[in-house]
Amino acid sequence: MTLENINIQVFKGKLSLAGLTNMKNAEVLPNLYNVSLNETGDAIKIIRDWKRTFVGKFVYKNPKYYGMIERLERLFGHVPEWSDFTKENIDLIVDMFSQVAQSSAKTYLSMLKSVLNDAKDEINLPYPRFAERMTLKSIPSVGVYLNLSDLKKLEEYCPINDKEKIILAQFLCGCYTGARHSDVINMTVNNIDGKYLTYVSQKTKVQTTVEAKPILRTLLLVAGKHIYADSVFNETIRTICYKVGINEQMRIFRKGKYEVGEKWKFVASHTARRSFATNLAELDVPLVQIAKRMGHNDVKMTMRYIVGTISRLEDKANEFFM
Fold it and tell me: N or C: which end of the chain has fewer CB within 10 A?
């Protein structure tokens, strides 16, 4: 079968050819390459057996997050199996995801819990209480954002290779649209209509419209050319920020403790969305308007993305502090 055939047989044709090619290279697809379309029975058996494995069940349920399999493989030293989800290994998984944004960590762990929960009646899992072990406690954190001066430096940077060019374009798209990284990588110039850009969030299925900054037309021609693993993306954007001199000394609070260092060290994919919200807040855009542009129904969610900014007071109010 071709990748297009596998897409139809397994994923009902919902995935892109580029995504399937990456999944094939990652060796997470069912081995149907030597099966002809006429061998229906063999194909059904191979797909059924694949879905019974941890890799198959996870990828079938979360095809766009197949990169999780590679992360678990690096952690375990082999292709992940049901027997790997011991108490000790679950703690290692939680620790691994504690290195990313708390919201992302919760999303990744929720996907894993969902797959394990689906399998628990059929598979004898080594640690039945996996769900409570994989539940993160909410820890307040204060991260960094890139101000307008920082973003100008990034705009003026000349990437040294395609990887830098694509990742920089994706990051700046996030900074100027407020969209999640998972939405940015699926955008094209076709999302722009006149002065506005409209998209439907992959995560929430909410349609969002935001003003289209002119530079987005150029950035979107590049941003969708490749999807990189989170670790590669974050390492690359930090390197670029270091090169352009985003080196202001910062003191931030995350993972329950304060950390000190140059700003570039704390930049990651989620910094783009935070930068969008904070820069608009500093420009006195009303919170409800920022929320609409970020696809939030509740301004409380939006407030989590705004870093250290408080509304400017009127002159009369300022007299109180004189």
Answer: C
